[in-house]
Design a protein that fits this description.
heterodimer; A: 3 domains; five-stranded parallel beta sheet; B: alpha/beta; seven-stranded antiparallel beta sheet; seven-stranded mixed beta sheet
Chain lengths: 476, 279
């Protein structure tokens, strides 16, 4: 096949993966990436639509056909440059974005069930650049050459270094602002670091993307909790002209059933933070402990639940069961993650809701009681509502329970910022430009949406950066 | 990185460090705490701010070497640094003119009541302080506390200093006495706070305790510090650490504090071993 020629293969490429039997015994990445040949061949399937639908499905509006064309031509450096015009975290997005619900869903070839593997190719381009960077000192990744000339006096504060904050910080730095990025934890990355496990998103990938953003001139300040160490008011007093709040949906929800405080019951946030960020799997070399049982029950069926279940398996659990109150169709996790969990031997107990947790005489969880459910009419989310089946209680033996039923927005900033308007459920209210009820204070990501996706948070960070630019130009 | 500028040994296994933390030194109020992680392999441990010096940009922390991390912290010297320090965290103590305030401190909790006593005094309260320890050698800061309190009572379990007995013995007598008590504030080991609560509950004397559950991020993210207060689950890191003692489920707190007992022992053995090797 000639360079640039189309590829008429009908099927979407399959990415190589570690086999289930092997991968459950390590924390290495499950999906292994594409080879150059595979990437070129897949990119050549793109028919270069005049009016590409895929771009409309991308919350950060990457020029997808353009980068695919560069890959098809083998011009990988230009491909990654094209992606980075819009997306500062391509290696992350290529791994964790739900492309099947976004760009790939709208791909014209998807009508026949075989959209271009856009996510795979985004990851390929990002990984190619990383490999180049480490292989040769000659290769210089594209930073923004304009930023220095355009450097304005204005200081902008970005609160939280998760996907929303990283994106906003990158875009603002590219526009020439002096950006300070505040992070309360010891490492930047937010949920990318404490939440998503190594086998789905290696920490080194996050580090590379964060380093790229710092390379744009962003000043990262760790161990600063906005709302406590400094308030939003303090930031303005300290000369910041605008602020973006991307502090995430940190506050875990619990089930509210008796026995939830017994030993061995974790929120998914606690469970994953201990393992991912504090490296509890290396205890006692690392001093943060985790006590992993043999029979683990995970409540919930989103991506966080899948992550928790698969982490438990890798930590040596004999049996891991995901319990969900609706059916498989309603599970909020990505299909890909559900399939991988199934392949790895995670059990699924569907249509069951927890009613009580029981402990042994040492206060440690020993079994859990559930009530069977059936599906009723669709609720406000459009999913069929689970209805309890009277008298159907039954028990499951377990010694670890992970509660993964969602998170609420972290209340620290709303509580410490007078005049910041919030929804009843705690989300910060913003207008169509991402500005809150306080002029100059913008917000986006999970603090506005409730727990959502990495890419929607990035879209919000992008919007806010553009709006902050507009806002500052109007006041200067 | 936060550098230690001063270190004192207050008693057997109770140490004081003054550490650089310029932003915290400006913001910290009585009752608030910080989280410290010593190094890359360290765990995040919450420690109450005992004193702040905004001019020098430092805060003072008093801690008891109870587990692996505090033991390791105790080996650091002036000039050494800790990798991470986050704060101030939690709500500050609610201070106003209550009238007659009794402040109770037990063990290392004595250091934690010091800023609260000062704030209560400044707000115009009469402060009677009761401090207690197992024995004279474990009693800390009695002179400092005496200087800021209107009246000071000292108890030791074995009678080697002050009165023989428990802090609650003195508190009971005060309650039976003529003077009305408007607020009791207690910090110390869980059994002590539980006992204080039991003493003041029958008389319905408003009592605040500062709880010390296990914490991880300490910013509201993980929920490991959940405590049951008035039948509701609260997060000590963001909703506390101070709560109405009469509403606290102390049995639940004790159970949650003991969750990692075996692991703590194992970690402590490792640190002790390293200390012996002079690492």
């Amino acid at each position: 096949m000639q360079a640039g020629q189309m590829n008429n293969k009908p099927e979407k490429i399959k990415m190589n993966e570690q086999l289930p039997g092997k991968r459950v015994r390590n924390f290495d990445e499950v999906a292994l990436g594409l080879t150059e040949e595979q990437a070129i061949s897949e990119a050549k399937r793109c028919i270069q639509c005049k009016n590409p639908a895929c771009v409309k499905g991308c919350p950060v509006m990457i020029d997808i056909p353009a980068f695919l064309k560069f890959i098809a031509l083998g011009e990988f450096d230009k491909a990654i440059e094209k992606i980075k015009e819009k997306n500062a975290l391509p290696a992350v997005c290529g791994r964790v974005c739900p492309q099947e619900d976004q760009c790939e869903k709208l791909c014209i070839l998807g009508k026949k069930g075989n959209p271009i593997g856009i996510g795979y190719l985004e990851r390929f381009a990002a990984d190619w650049e990383t490999k180049k960077k480490f292989q040769t000192t000659k290769y210089k990744p594209q930073t923004n050459p304009k930023s220095k000339n355009q450097m304005t006096e204005s200081k902008v504060a970005v609160v939280g270094s998760g996907p929303a904050g990283l994106t906003a910080a990158a875009d603002l730095a590219k526009l020439g602002y002096q950006v300070s990025l505040f992070e309360s934890l010891s490492e930047p990355g937010g949920v990318l670091v404490y939440g998503i496990p190594e086998f789905r998103l290696p920490k080194r990938i996050v580090k590379i993307e964060v380093d790229y953003i710092r390379g744009l001139g962003v000043d990262l300040q760790i161990d600063v909790l906005i709302g406590k160490t400094l308030t939003i008011d303090d930031l303005f007093k300290n000369g910041y002209k605008a602020a973006f709040v991307g502090s995430g949906a940190g506050l875990p929800r619990f089930m509210g059933v008796p026995g939830e405080n017994f030993g061995g019951v974790y929120s998914a946030n606690e469970f994953l933070t201990r393992v991912n960020m504090m490296k509890a799997y290396k205890f006692p070399e690392y001093l943060t402990p985790i006590r992993m049982g043999k029979h683990v029950v995970v409540i919930g069926a989103g991506n966080v639940a899948m992550d928790s279940a698969r982490v438990a398996l890798r930590l040596g659990a004999k049996e891991v069961t995901i319990v969900y109150r609706r059916s498989r169709t309603e599970m909020p996790a990505r299909e890909e993650e559900i399939v991988r969990a199934e392949e790895e031997g995670i059990k699924f107990t569907l249509l069951a809701a927890p009613t009580e947790i029981f402990a042994d005489d040492k206060g440690w969880v020993k079994e859990m009681e559930f009530l069977k459910m059936k599906l009723g009419e669709p609720d406000s989310s459009g999913r069929r509502r689970p209805v309890p089946v009277e008298g159907s209680e039954y028990k499951i033996k377990c010694d670890t329970v992970v509660v993964a039923i969602g998170q609420k927005p972290n209340p620290l900033i709303p509580k410490s910022t007078p005049n910041l308007k919030i929804e009843k459920w705690g989300g910060v209210i913003v207008d169509e430009k991402g500005m809150t009820s306080i002029p100059g204070v913008f917000a986006g990501g999970d603090i506005v949406l409730g727990a959502a996706t990495v890419i929607s948070a990035m879209g919000a960070g992008k919007l806010a950066a553009a709006s902050i630019h507009e806002f500052l130009q109007n006041i200067v | 990185m936060n550098r230690i500028v001063k270190k004192e040994i207050l008693a057997e296994a109770i140490k004081l460090i003054e550490i650089e933390a310029p932003l915290v030194a400006v913001k910290a109020l009585p009752g608030q705490f910080v989280v410290i992680r010593i190094d890359e392999t360290g765990e995040r441990i919450p420690l109450t701010v005992a004193e702040k010096n905004p001019k020098a940009g430092t805060i003072t922390i008093v801690f008891q070497e109870a587990g692996a991390s505090t033991k390791k912290l105790g080996t650091l010297k002036p000039g050494d640094s800790v990798l991470n320090l986050l704060g101030p965290l939690g709500h500050p103590t609610h201070v106003e003119k209550f009238g007659n305030v009794v402040v109770v401190g037990g063990g290392v909790g004595i250091a934690e009541i010091h800023p609260v006593i000062k704030a209560m005094k400044e707000a115009g309260n009469k402060v009677t302080t009761i401090i207690g320890a197992r024995c004279k050698d474990l009693l800390i800061m009695d002179k400092v506390i005496a200087n800021v309190s209107d009246v000071l009572h000292v108890t030791t379990d074995d009678g080697t200093c002050g009165r023989k007995g428990f802090v609650t013995d003195v508190l009971k007598e005060m309650i039976e006495g003529e003077e009305e008590i408007n607020l009791v504030y207690a910090v110390g080991p869980v059994p002590m706070m539980d006992a204080v609560s039991r003493v003041t509950k029958p008389q319905n004397i408003k009592t605040l305790v500062s709880l010390n559950p296990i914490m991880l991020d300490a910013t509201g993210m993980c929920g490991v510090c959940r405590v049951v207060v008035g039948g509701k689950t609260m997060f000590a890191c963001v909703d506390g650490p101070e709560f109405d003692a009469h509403l606290v489920d102390f049995a639940d707190l004790r159970n949650r504090l003991s969750v990692y007992k075996d692991e703590e022992k194992k970690a402590l053995e490792k640190i002790n071993h390293e200390c012996r090797l002079g690492k």
